[in-house]
Amino acid sequence: QVQLVESGGGSVQAGGSLRLSCVASGYIDSRRCMAWFRQAPGKEREGVATIDSNGEAYADSVKGRFTISQDNAKRTLILQMNSLKPEDTGMYYCAAASFACRWSGRLERAYGVWGQGTQVTVSS
User: Fold this and answer.
1) Separation of alpha carbons 46 and 48, rounded Å
2) Residue 18: in which H helix or E strand, if any?
3) What pLDDT band is residue 32 in, cutting at 50, 70 and 90?
4) b/e map 41-56, b = 16+ CB within 10 Å
5) Under 8 Å between Cβ of 114 and 2
6) For a FRET experiment, which of 5, 13, 105, 106 has its CA 20 to 30 Å from that of 94?
C-alpha cells in the first residue's frame, strides 16, 4: 500500500501564500485521481482540488487562488495556495483514489489512501 506524507503547512496572514507538498512512497498511476481535502474545526472534510491525466478541478471557494499540480517523476503532489483567507484555515490532506477524477470527483469515500495531514492557519 502506497503511503502519502504531506508537508508545507504553517501560519500566515490573510493574503499570504503557502505551498503544500505530498510525497508518495511508491508509484501512483497518473490516471488515478489525486486530491487535496481540508477540514476546518467543527466542519466536515471537503474536497479542494483534484488532478489526473485529464486535468484539474477546483472547489468554487478556491478557484483562481489555488493550483494543484503533480510531478510524477518525483511522486509529488503540490497545492500552491495564494491570496489565503481566514476561512482557508484547517487540516489539509492529500488522498489517492483508485479511479480517474471523472468517477471520484471530490467524494471522500472514493479515496482509499490518505496522508496524515498538515495544518494551515490563516490569521486576519
Assistant:
1) 6
2) strand 18-24
3) very high
4) eeeebebbbbbbeeee
5) no
6) 13
At 73 the pLDDT is 80
Q: 10 Å Cβ neighbour count for 5?
A: 13
DSSP string, 77-93: EEEEE-S--GGG-EEEE
Centroid of chain to Cα 33? 11
The answer for residues whose C-beta is within 8 angstroms of residue 54's C-beta and 6 or more apart is: 100, 101, 102
Would you state the pLDDT for residue 122? 98
Determine the pLDDT at residue 28: 87
Lookup: cell for 46: 471537503
DSSP line for 44-76:
--EEEEEEETTEEEE-TTTTTTEEEEEETTTTE
